[in-house]
Every structure is written in C-alpha cells, then in structure tokens.
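Example 9 (inverse folding). The structure is encoded as follows.
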C-alpha cells in the first residue's frame, strides 16, 4: 500500500510508503527523472499532488470584524493618510492571542517586507523608526499558547507624505533605560536638582517663597489623615448625600497627598527638613488606608486617581527619607492600587478607549509605574502600557486639527492633567508630546472657540458660562511648551501668563518664554473636521467686535460629555450669548441632565415628531459635509439624518454667514413616513415673539432679529420651563422657542434668516422670499449691501430673474461701496467663491 492515513489523526500523522531505494529524494527531485523511473503512474500523481498542494490543518481564524460603536478600530484605516511617520497600528484584540506579528511592505503581496516585528503583546504598535514615503501595506497575525499561527488579517494600505510628522516610539528596552535609576523620577531628574536649587534662590525665588509659605502653613496646620468614610448602605446612589461623599472624598484625598508632595518637593530645593518629615508622615498615614476602600480606584475613581499620582510623586520626592520597611509598605499599597488600575485599563483601553475617566487614569498609572520602577515587579509593564496608550490611542476625543469633542470645560480639565504626563515624559523619557499632530495644534481650539472676551464655551458639558480668560492658565503652558507665537499672543492679550502654582508651576518656570504674534495672517474661522465642529468668526481678535456662529455635526456622535445633538448651532455676538444650548447639569445622569440636556429639544436643532436623536450615544453620528471661509462669507453644511432614534432619511443643514451681520440657515429634511418637524431655539433671556417673521432676542449689548421665511404656516410656542427641571438648588431661567410644522410631511424645508446687531442699533430684517419651481430665492440686505440667496430644493435648473442656477446654492453679494459682486456657489460638497 503506497499511501496510509489514520483517520483518527490529523495530517501530521499521515505516512507514505514508497517502494524506492534507501536514499530518499528531496521534493524537487520527485518532480524529475527519479520519480518517473521509480514510481508507478498513480504514485507519481499522488506524490506530486501531495508536495505541491499539501493538506494542512485549518489555520486559526483572525477576527477582522470592523470596529463597533465605542471601539477604536483597525488603524491606519485602509487607504488612509497617516498624520505621523511611522503610523500607529491598532487592531481588534484576538481572543486566543498570546503574541502578535506585524508586517509592512510597499508591495500588497508582501514579497518584500521592509518592517516586521514579532512578540507584540499589546493590540497596538508604533515602530521605533520612520517609514519610507509613499503607499505601504500592513497585515498581522497572532500566535496562540501553542505557538500556532493564525491566518493573516486583511491587508490595508496607508500613505505617508512629506507632511507627516516624524513620531517614532522608542523600543521597550530603550524607553525603560532612559528613566533614572535613582530618585526623584517624576517631573525632574536627580541631576537637575543643583540647577533648580540655584533657580530657587535666583530667577524663581518668588515661586520658591510661595512654596515655602504653603509648607509653613502646613507645618502649623497639617491636614487630617483619618481614612475617609464609605457611602454606607443607607446612602442612595446619585443622591445629594452620595454626591457629597463622592466628591468630598476626592477633595480630602487631594488635600492630604498633594500637601505631602508639596512638602517633599520644597525640601528637595533646600527647604527645612521638617517639611520632609511631615511629608513622610502624611504619606505613611495614607498608606494605612484600605486600597480597595473609600479611596479605591474601582470604588471611587475620583478619589482613587489623585491618590495614585500624588502618592507616587510624594514617594519619589521623599524616597531618601524612607526606611526600607517604610518603602516596603508603600510598595505593598501601590502594588494593589496599581494592579487594580492596570487590570481595569489593559487591554480594554487600547481598543475601547472612549471611557471618559479612563482617559485620565492611564497616565496616572504611568506615573505610579515610573516612581516604583524596579521596586514593584509590575511597574515596568505599567510604564510601557501608559506609553503605548499615548503613542497609539490618545487623545481619543480629538482630531489632528486640534479639535475636541467633549467641550472646552472637559478639554481644560483633562488636558491640564495630561500636561503633567507630558512634563513627566519629557523629563523621565525624553519624549516631546508636542510633536504629536494634535498637540502641535491644540491651542487653536480655544483661540477660535473663544476669541478674547468671549462669554460662552460652545458645545459640551459644563460649558455654558465659561469665559475666554478661563483658558489662560492652560494656554500659558501650551504656548510655552509648544513654542507657538499665536497661542502666546492669546495669553498676552488676556493680561499675560498665569503660571500654575505649586511645584509643577515652579518647574515650568524654568522653561524659556516665547514672543507672541497676533493671528492677523490666519483666517478668522476654522473647521475641526474630525470632531465635527465649525467655528465661524467675523473678528478673531476681540469678541466685542465679533459675531460668531458655532456649528456641530460630529462623527463622534453624542457620547460622553459631548452630548449636544447634531446639526445644532450657537450664536454669540459682541461678547454675549444670544442663542444657546440650554439647561444646567445638577448631577451627571440626573433626570434633568438625561432627559432634557441629552435630548435634542435642549439645543438649536430639529426634533422629528418631537423625538430626539440618540441620547448620549455614538450612534447619533453627524458629518460636516463642506466648509468655506473668507473675508466675505463663511459656509458650513452638515448631515445628521442617521442620528435620530426615529427613521430620518435626510437632515441637511446649510449655514451661510454673510459677514458681519447676516446669517441664513437652510434645512432640508426627509422621512420615510409623513412627519412633523420642530425647529428648536433657546436663549438665556426672554425671546420676544411678534409673528414668525418678527422674533427678537437681546442680551447685554447684543441683539438679534430672526425671521422664519419657510414654511409660512408654522405653529410657534414659547416657554421658560424645563421638562424635566433641574434640582431645586439650581436656579436657572432660560427661554425656549419651538417652531412646529402645521401638518405631517415626508419632505420639508426650513429657511431662517438671522441678523445680529448691537443693541443700540436698529437693524430690522429686510428680506423677501420667493418660492420657485425647484427652490427658493431670498433677497435680503446686509451691512455690506444687497444679498441674493438662491436655494435649490430639487434637481433641475433654478431660475430667478436673469439667473439660471444648477448649483445647490448660490449667494450673490452686491457691495454698496462700489466693489465688484462677490459670489459663493455650492455644488455637492464643493464650495467656490468668486
């Protein structure tokens, strides 16, 4: 029998019995003369088939399902352009994977691999070297516990151009080797201490004296260190009593351990030894707290996170004063706390990184890892994990233009904390965070959102009453660290730098200053495409002379703290808020927060059959379709049809800003079934309603006229009530206008004309609308002269007077100063100004 198979075994147990000489041939010989002479015909066929197309066990399957809502996704995406060189690679974690192998080639068949790496343990990787320019391809596979390899993933391509920022990540061994062997390790290195001591007695003496003053007060009145209380069974979740304990324990923890860190650091600069002894006592007292008790990371992360990083800083600053027994106690405590954080974050945060609090926790864990490197066995992995998060998936709420999804309040809160990690990476590992594309443009977000003097923080949680000057402490850091002259101008025009206090501020005081430059050569408006926000300004230099329209249609949906509905707009003028997002957060997730502020009814957008877009969900996606800015016109359009809980085929909103004082909003809606549509508008002050074409709002020195030109038969209502209202402790009055269509329709268009002006000026809207076969003509007058808007509703030529228009939208401005007519045309997503 020439061929034998044991059906109970796989292919590796098959054997071949060949009547042949003792000297067996190699496979290539089997195809030649030897085979013809020594085997019968059926044996030749069998062996030729066997060696040419061997039957193999089925390879492990690679799970290549596309990213779902809340997942980071395979990156770089197929046919994408990488903003960095090399790109960051991320992929879906594979259930059976122990390690991964990644390959990159400029050939889609991978005949030649210019970059390959094995033994990767995280589902992400940034190479330590730059890649060749041009188009490349990537694929990967995994190995399981038996070291059996999976099939390769889908091949994806990416493009690297000369514009890509060089941003390789050091290899693991090099990264860890850069961290000092001795202490201190966070924010400063041991070899930097002599220079810092000199600065404390010279250039930074004032800052040093501020540190000493605080330490003296702490010596005379040290904080209590009794372990904070847990909630108790009788405390209702999210109640006011719960809220006080939840946040109160954070405040208590910070007071104890931030005091300890400040004392320990000041002593390093030459302060009293008593400072170090008190720091040591506070540290060791806190070390007695149950690591999984009231300040545990999983029990109350708002207390657990500051415990972790303040403890780590104190430990590295006071390390030389601790006995080995005391160090062992600290290691024991932070082993538990660090492991709890790591187990919660890794690997999930590398694939599902959209948890708001986790976007702080990972770099706090990194600080713990650096402080305890070489002392806690797992600390090395904590450092490597945190660095991988930064290089591969952070920041998740951003885009490469500098935009931010969660709003300026959370931007300041989270980025301010991140700058600590940027400082730590720079000192401990010689990594410059500001070379990353987002951080190289980060300061443009507050500059365009809040020109100097702006009252109102745009979209996002807790933003309603934020002022532009609130950005200055953080912008002081960003301008200095990134060496950006425009951001420095923003700081200076607000009165100059506002350096952070404490030991972090002292260390930053050693950074060289940068000279400011006014942004007169920059456009006054900007679109942050990746986060779906357009910020249209008339005057970027001073809010008192500015009219600003903010628009949101975001691919992030309405998740987390960026829950404002899509295709919503805001209007600020002359430093005042006119049309706003409404409500006030009394407690995150409260009845008012969830059912008013997360609902589309609370913003200047449109509800369908009174129904909301998906509330606080990544499903509620929008998209900015087109954006254009010039001295005469700003234009933006967005699509939000898929954002709704009810079927909506289309919700396209166009906003045309004829600078400085005329804004037309054109909405196109389509639903599969006849529906009613409610155009929502909100103001911090009473709206005066005299008919649908005579609506007036004013706030401070700013005012606005509004006219609904289409449809003609709207049912308009006005109220100052919330449904549901915030908790009684919140005192808030705002006004809400609803313009509802009179009957259900499958298709509907709204045309609204707004004219913002200074309160003392009389600026009534002068407009006339003509309904045409394929659309509308709107004639109006702006400060610069007559304006004609031609808005196409359906396919075909739109004819009006001597105009025959095939574009979707055409705007003609006839300046009264004798200058030539200026036009803006929109066809699809192409915008042309002439």
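The amino acid assigned to each position is listed next.
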């Amino acid at each position: 029998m020439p061929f034998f198979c044991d059906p109970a075994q796989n292919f590796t147990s098959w054997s071949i019995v060949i009547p042949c000489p003792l000297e067996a041939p190699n496979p290539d010989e089997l195809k030649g003369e030897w085979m013809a002479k020594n085997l019968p015909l059926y044996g030749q066929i069998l062996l030729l088939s066997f060696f040419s197309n061997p039957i193999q066990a089925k390879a492990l399957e690679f799970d290549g399902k596309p990213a779902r809502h809340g997942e980071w996704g395979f990156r770089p995406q197929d046919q994408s352009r990488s903003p960095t060189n090399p790109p960051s690679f991320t992929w879906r974690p594979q259930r059976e994977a122990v390690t991964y192998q990644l390959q990159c080639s400029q050939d889609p068949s991978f005949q030649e691999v210019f970059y390959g790496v094995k033994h990767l343990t995280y589902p992400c990787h940034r190479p330590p070297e730059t890649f060749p320019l041009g188009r490349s391809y990537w694929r990967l596979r995994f190995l399981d516990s038996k070291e059996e390899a999976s099939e390769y993933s889908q091949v994806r391509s990416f493009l690297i151009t000369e514009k890509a920022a060089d941003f390789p990540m050091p290899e693991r061994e090099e990264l860890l080797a850069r961290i000092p062997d001795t202490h201190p390790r966070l924010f400063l290195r041991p070899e930097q201490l002599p220079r810092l001591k000199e600065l404390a007695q010279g250039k930074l003496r004032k800052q040093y004296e501020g540190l000493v003053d605080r330490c003296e007060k702490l010596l005379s009145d040290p904080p209590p260190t009794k372990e904070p209380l847990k909630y108790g069974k009788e405390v209702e979740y999210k109640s006011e009593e719960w809220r006080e304990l939840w946040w109160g324990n954070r405040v208590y923890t910070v007071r104890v351990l931030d005091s300890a860190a400040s004392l320990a650091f000041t002593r390093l600069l030459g302060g009293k030894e008593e400072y170090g002894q008190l720091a040591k006592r506070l540290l060791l007292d806190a070390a007695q707290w149950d690591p999984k008790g009231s300040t545990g990371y999983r029990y109350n992360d708002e207390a657990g996170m500051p415990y972790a990083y303040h403890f780590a800083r104190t430990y590295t600053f006071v390390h030389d004063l601790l006995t080995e027994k005391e160090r062992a106690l600290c290691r024991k405590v932070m082993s538990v706390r660090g492991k709890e954080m790591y187990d919660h974050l890794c690997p999930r945060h590398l694939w599902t990184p959209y948890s708001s609090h986790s976007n702080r926790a990972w770099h706090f864990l990194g600080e713990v890892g650096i402080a305890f490197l070489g002392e806690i066995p797992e600390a090395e992995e904590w450092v490597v994990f945190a660095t991988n998060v930064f290089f591969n998936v952070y920041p998740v709420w951003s885009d490469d233009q500098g935009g931010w999804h969660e709003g300026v309040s959370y931007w300041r809160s989270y980025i301010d904390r991140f700058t600590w990690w940027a400082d730590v990476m720079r000192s401990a590992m010689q990594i410059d965070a500001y070379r990353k594309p987002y951080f190289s443009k980060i300061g443009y977000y507050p500059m365009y959102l809040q020109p100097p003097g702006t009252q109102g923080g745009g979209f996002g949680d807790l933003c309603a009453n934020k002022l532009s000057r609130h950005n200055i402490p953080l912008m002081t850091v960003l301008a200095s660290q990134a060496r950006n002259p425009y951001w420095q101008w923003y700081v200076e025009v607000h009165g100059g730098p506002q350096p952070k206090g404490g030991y972090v501020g002292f260390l930053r005081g050693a950074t060289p200053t940068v000279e400011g430059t006014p942004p007169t050569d920059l456009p006054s408006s900007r679109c942050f495409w990746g986060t779906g926000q357009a910020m249209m300004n008339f005057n970027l230099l001073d809010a008192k002379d500015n009219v600003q329209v903010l628009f949101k249609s975001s691919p992030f949906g309405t998740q987390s703290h960026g829950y404002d509905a899509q295709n919503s707009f805001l209007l600020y003028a002359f430093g005042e808020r006119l049309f706003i997002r409404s409500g006030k957060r009394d407690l995150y997730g409260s009845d008012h927060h969830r059912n008013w502020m997360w609902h589309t009814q609370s913003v200047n957008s449109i509800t369908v059959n009174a129904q909301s877009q998906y509330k606080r969900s990544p499903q509620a996606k929008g998209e900015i379709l087109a954006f254009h800015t010039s001295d005469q016109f700003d234009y933006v359009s967005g699509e939000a049809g898929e954002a709704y809980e009810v079927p909506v085929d289309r919700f396209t909103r166009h906003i045309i800003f004829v600078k400085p004082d005329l804004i037309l909003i054109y909405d196109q809606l389509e639903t599969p079934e006849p529906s009613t549509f409610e155009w929502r508008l909100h103001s911090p002050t009473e709206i005066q309603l005299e008919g649908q074409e005579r609506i007036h709002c004013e706030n401070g020195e700013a005012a606005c006229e509004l006219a609904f030109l289409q449809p003609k038969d709207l049912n308009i209502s006005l109220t100052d009530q919330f449904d549901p209202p915030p908790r009684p402790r919140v005192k808030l009055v705002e006004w809400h206008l609803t313009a509802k269509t009179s009957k259900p329709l499958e298709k509907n268009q709204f045309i609204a004309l707004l004219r913002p002006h200074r309160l003392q000026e009389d600026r009534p809207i002068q407009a006339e609308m003509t309904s045409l076969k394929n659309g509308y003509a709107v004639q109006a007058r702006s400060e610069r002269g007559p304006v004609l808007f031609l808005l196409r509703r359906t396919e075909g030529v739109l004819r009006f007077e001597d105009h025959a228009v095939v574009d979707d939208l055409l705007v003609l401005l006839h300046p009264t100063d004798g200058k030539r007519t200026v036009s803006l045309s929109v066809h699809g997503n192409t915008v042309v100004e002439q």
